Amino acid sequence: MPASERPRRRWDLVLSIALLAYGLLTIFGGLTQYTDIPSIIDQAYEAQGIGEFTSTELASTVGVVIVIVHTLLYVITALVTVRLLQARRLAFYVPLIGGALAITVAIALILMLMLSDPAFNAYVGSVS
Q1: How far apart are CA 63 and CA 46, in angstroms?
Q2: For the whole model, what pTM was predicted?
């Protein structure tokens, strides 16, 4: 069925645009957070009594990687969403998937960062 014959779903259009806008705000907010990962993890360590975070150079690199991956995922998500909306197909799920992928990448990289930190490993060793 040609795109012109498909019904336009206004709720899908509104929801898709709202999710894309939220994703864009999240990227801008993440710029400051992810580029300052060492101090954020150090604060979390201090609150939990783990010790001092020492992998600061690696953390800065991981922060930049997270920002780049989030930006690329957002661009791909926005392009696919716009194409689906132009074809009058459901599109709201694309920003949801893009957001889930972005969160998964961030969590995996931060976990990798923490697991490579000697202070965290010493804390885990002392607890077990």
Answers
A1: 20
A2: 0.85
Task: Compute the radius of gyration of the chain from its Cα atoms.
Answer: 19
Work out the mean pLDDT of the chain and round it to a whole number: 91
Q: Per-residue pLDDT averaged across 21-33, rounded?
A: 93
The Cα 38–Cα 107 span in angstroms is 15
| 55/40 Cα distance (integer angstroms) | 12
Tell me how crowded residue 128 is: count the other CB atoms within 10 A of its CB: 5
Measured between alpha carbons, how far is 8 from 18 in angstroms, rounded to an integer?
17
Determine contact, residues 40/33, Cβ cutoff 8 Å.
yes
